[in-house]
Amino acid sequence: MVPVEKTRFEIEAMMRKRGADQFFSGGMEDKAALAFRLNGRHLRFMLPLGPKLTAQQHRSRWRALYLVIKARLQAIDLGIMTIEDAFLGETVLPDKQTVAEYMAPQIEAAYATGQMPKLLPFFGTDGGG
């Protein structure tokens, strides 16, 4: 059984080798956060926990997060995806939401209506910036 702290340290070490910095981790009753900066972008992983989970279940979830990140890094190494592609959903936007949090409702609406979401609102009357 690998302690949560050791797994978190292993994730940080793995990402430091890729040039990540500005690490942050914290927790609440029902979730934990792990965040860092990579290639100038802030990334955040939220790990659902919950008060009813055992210590072993907490360790298992942290270990699964480690394996997810490790698999993405391996896919990057093999040229299957870029760093940006691999961590797109976890990229933190200026309003502090991740891309996944921001896009999930828009994707749901697009499937429900068949209409594509607007990417950015137009400014002025000519549609320019």
Question: Your description of this structure?
Answer:
With 129 residues, this protein is α+β, with helices and mostly antiparallel strands. The chain has one domain. The chain is built from four helices and three strands. The termini are far apart.
Radius of gyration: 18 Å
Q: Sheet bearing the most strands, described? A: 3 strands, antiparallel
How many beta-strand elements?
A: 3
What shape does the CA trace take?
Answer: globular
What's the number of domains?
Answer: 1
Average of per-residue pLDDT values: 90
Query: How many helical stretches?
Result: 4
Helix content range: 40-55%
Q: How much of the residues is beta strand, in percent?
A: 15-25%
Notable features of this structure?
4 helices, 18% strand, alpha+beta, three-stranded antiparallel β-sheet, 129 residues
Short account of what is shown:
With 129 residues, the chain is an alpha+beta fold.
Please specify the SSE layout and strand pairing.
Layout: H1 4-16, E1 21-27, E2 31-38, E3 41-48, H2 55-77, H3 83-86, H4 99-113
Antiparallel strand pairs: 1-2, 2-3
Helix pairs in contact: 1-2
